[in-house]
Design brief:
CATH superfamily of the largest domain: Cytidine Deaminase, domain 2
Largest sheet: 5 strands, mixed
Number of domains: 2
CATH architecture of the largest domain: 3-Layer(aba) Sandwich
Distance between the termini: 88 Å
Radius of gyration: 24 Å
CATH topology of the largest domain: Cytidine Deaminase, domain 2
Low-confidence stretches: 1-9
Order of helices and strands: HHHHHHHEEHEHEEH
Helix content: 40-55%
Structural class: alpha+beta
Number of strands: 5
Length: about 240
């Protein structure tokens, strides 16, 4: 009896399995810097698509969203609209930026001293990795300018002050803070302060002043740029500089 040939799918699977093994070995030997952007995405998709060629899907995603970062920043629902992207792949892609933030913060969780705006900005910047929405972040310092808290106190428009001003005061008192620094991001990418930003800063300043905690600065981020209200001198009559 004549034996049948193995299905073409089996040959294809073996070819893709060999390709995956070569890419994994390359990563282990040379690191991620040896990969093109689409190859990074291709290998990432190995973990959500256990069999088959993910190269074509990686190119499809890059073409649709323009870059590797564009893919990671794409809304979950839009990822699901791409042929070949299922729920698990979309979840994996959306997890990466936030995973990077958690990793970065964990690497820098030791107590540091903050003496300059640039130091505060570097710490704040980590809080915005992988975030598409506007968030308000509070930093508290002790009497020796050591960082004792840096955390999100509100997600949403910064001018909704009543939503988070009580929390800011409660945290300042709980941690016996000697100074505070406020920050928020502009998802639009433009860090120039709005009228609402100025008004919210004044409200937070007075709320903290009532518990004897000076507000040193309000730092606004837009993409990789930021502006410091204390450096701009906008609120120099009320805000105590570093």
């Amino acid at each position: 009896m004549k034996t049948e040939k193995a299905p073409e799918k089996s040959t294809s699977y073996q070819l893709h399995a060999g390709h995956r093994k070569r890419m994994q070995d390359r990563f282990l030997n040379k690191g991620i810097d040896s990969f093109e952007s689409h190859e990074v995405l291709e290998m990432l998709l190995f973990f959500s698509i256990p069999r088959g060629d993910t190269n074509e899907l990686a190119h499809r995603l890059m073409d649709q969203f323009g870059s590797l970062s564009g893919v990671f920043h794409a809304p979950y629902e839009e990822l699901l609209n791409i042929k070949g992207v299922g729920r698990v792949s979309a979840l994996l892609i959306k997890m990466i930026p936030q995973l990077c933030r958690v990793y970065y913060e964990d690497c820098h969780k030791e107590k540091v001293r903050v003496f300059e705006v640039e130091q505060a900005a570097d710490i704040f910047r980590r809080k915005y990795i992988g975030r598409a929405n506007e968030v308000v972040v509070l930093m508290l310092l002790d009497s020796q300018c050591r960082l004792i808290l840096c955390d999100v106190v509100n997600e949403g428009a910064v001018n909704t002050v009543p939503v988070y001003v009580r929390r800011i005061v409660e945290l300042a008192v709980r941690y016996n803070a000697s100074a505070a620094i406020l920050s928020h991001n502009h998802p639009s990418g433009n860090p120039v302060p709005s009228k609402g930003d100025i008004e919210s800063t004044i409200s937070v300043f007075h709320a903290l002043k009532a518990v004897n905690v000076p507000l040193r600065d309000h730092i606004i981020f837009g993409d990789q740029d930021y502006l410091s209200l204390s450096h701009l001198g906008i609120l120099k009559d009320i805000m105590e500089p570093f």
